[in-house]
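PROTOCOL LOG
Step 1. Enter all chains and additional molecules of the complex.
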Amino acid sequence: MTSPFVLSQSDGRPMYLQIIEQIRLRITVGDWQPGFKLPSIRELAVATRVSVITVKRAYQELEKDGVIITRQGKGSYVAEIDGLDLKLRREELDQHLQEAIAVARGLGIDQEELLARLKALLADEPE
Amino acid sequence: MMSTAAIELNNVNKSYRYFALSDISLQLEPGHIMGFIGPNGAGKSTTIRLIMGLVHADSGDIRVLGHAMPVEQVAAKWGIGFASEDMNLYKAATLEWHMGFMQSIYADWDKDYARQLVDRFDLRPEQRMKGMSHGQKVKSGLLLALARRPRLLVLDEPTTGLDPVARTEVLNELMEVLVDEDRSVLFSSHNTNDVEQISDKITFIDRGRIIEAQDKESFLDRWRRVRFETSAGFVLPELPGMTEHRLDGSLGTLTTGNFGTEVREKLQAAGATILAVDNMTLEEIFVAEVMSSRGTASSSDSTGESR
Amino acid sequence: MNKQVSARPVFWQLVRKDWYLVAWPLVALLLAGLASIVVLSINHWMTFLVGSILLISVVVLIGVVLVFGSVVNERSQKTLALVMSLPITAVQYTAAKLVSNVGVFTLAWLVLLGSTVVAILTRDNLPDGLIPFAVIVLGQLYVAYAITVAVALISESELWTIVVFSAFNISISIFMNLMGRLSEIGSHMEGPVPVWNATALGIIAVEWLIVAGAVAVTLWVQSRKTDFL
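Step 2. Run joint prediction.
Step 3. Record the structure below.
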């Protein structure tokens, strides 16, 4: 294994989500190019000290999302899609924004106010 | 080749004067780690003794590595590495002697791996057992079980009483076992933290009964703590898998072992707004399972009094 | 890959292990035994008495070391789980214990018997008629040991082992007294030749039947135990 993933038990999210995030991150930053062969489920499980079933679950989710492709008996590969890294970047951002939307809804904040808040925060951002 | 289960128990019963194991069924597939969790005195050790053929069941079938127990225990035990928290090595003898003893019995003893384990576990082979700390003794016992690379490891509370460093060393070695797809591990613990990260399957036992056995991801997936806000006159509907609920003013929490759209929809239909859906740790899930199986799930409802 | 093919004789490894674990006290006792034989062979009634008492004590102590060092301790020191995780059954475990125990004890006992008989035969002040009596009394020592081992293995209790062992040791002088009073035995003790009459042979036969019975019962009970640990 090249670099072991950094997984945390105190991170509130389930392990499989953390693994998904770490794999997506490697693809996003370009370390794992399209066509790159992922470590086998067992290899990754042993390297990260996480159960096989958890890693398997992460791979299944990634496959469902079209991020990786598993070839029977050969292993899993990063999907060969043009602009996959961009797509993943966008998905990552969307995920956070969706959480913000959900929180806003829970607090009874409407769409307009949410957008206004976002603009205000962007304006405050020191650059 | 059909792969036989590493461990298979079907409807096993065993009663003692003040304790009984009732209708125990469990299955461990090759290549998996099973965490066997239960409070002290729940029946973990008795189940493990049944698996090792040291105790005979009153009824039911036990097969280990394809061998019927206890009749074929000799054949089964060639493939089992066993260590238990209440197993001691010979006080007057050194770790080196113990390693030689195991090597004299098992042709598959791996000398090089044993040396590696000595280093990784930070042990001194020339030391007598009586001079060792608790952690060193436990690690020595595990070393003897691991160094033959047995097909099945049966470990009764292997991490109990270990400091965090030693525990990590041990858990790391257990994961290493799984590089080989045919090898399996059953390990019991009353500490869910040890089990949570590395187990594929989790079996909960309490008061001599298996209360739940599933793969870990399903456990973590099914259980949620839901926080919600209610409006006046809110009545909590019947929800699937609910083990516990609390209403405090207009805020409520509930725990369910069967979370899904049904829970969401019923809550919303009853007029509640869901504020958050939290994942639960295996420990919280375990406590909830035990409480609900004992029928002591706590529910408090302070709404009535405050209005 | 069949692991049984490469199986080694676990049984003898267990016996060897038991001997290794009690090796030091055993060596010390065997040396003490040799010393007492030297004392016993000095031609004086006083040294003979001291030597034979010493030798009997040594044999009894060898029994104690074996029973407690390898049978009782296996449970009380919680090492039994390690042994029972090896590819053996409870009966094989028991058989290995019997062999490691009885093997060493029999050796020590034969030395005791041999030196006693030689002493009686070679000394003018010891009538040869004593031999049947000596064989009976030493046989009783063996019976006591065999039953103690059986109780240790069957009862799994340190307490019961101590009780049985002590009871036999206390009763050995009563037994000697009883045998001496038995006219069929006692009347020939002072004689110039050993008399192997029906009573003497009968008692010896009963003693060895009890030993064989203790071994058989132990194996039988162990094979029927449903909870071994």
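Step 4. Note key features.
DSSP finds eleven helices and 15 strands in chain B.
Residues 223-306 of chain B form one domain.
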